[in-house]
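Sequence in, structure out.
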Amino acid sequence: MRRFWTICLCISLFFSFTSNPNRTLSFIIPDSIQPWVYVPLTRQWQHATAIRSLLKQIPPDASVSATTFIVPHLSGRRAIIRFPSLKFRNDEGQVVKVDYAIADIWQLQQYQAAFRGDRQTLQDSLSTVKWVTSDREYGIIDLKDGVVLLKKAVASKPQPLAQWKSIVNSK
């Protein structure tokens, strides 16, 4: 019986690794032999540098909404939710909006051709940014390499706003 369970465990681990759930092992196991999307490692590092520079602008105690691939970088925070959601229930039970939002539009644009979920998230993210900036609930305070940083209750800075409009118009 022990040998049977060992074999079952090995088979389940094999299929877990080869199916690459949530694309967490993509740096080791490619999504396919001939991928629809290929982003060189050097380009990914460059993009990660831009993300880190934006994350430094967010105070450690601020509540944040972030797209999927940025969430792990902020996971130690008390209040973090997945973008495009902007509201969460705090410890007092009140529904409040996050202080900052950061959305990696570049990542979603790159992988939308291969992953239907990314395509929908991209559309939702673009709509959310357009909606909250037009209502002036949030302002775009920085934009680097397709990653937009929003802050609650501030006006958008002119240069990042112009960059954002060029991204949206190119869609």
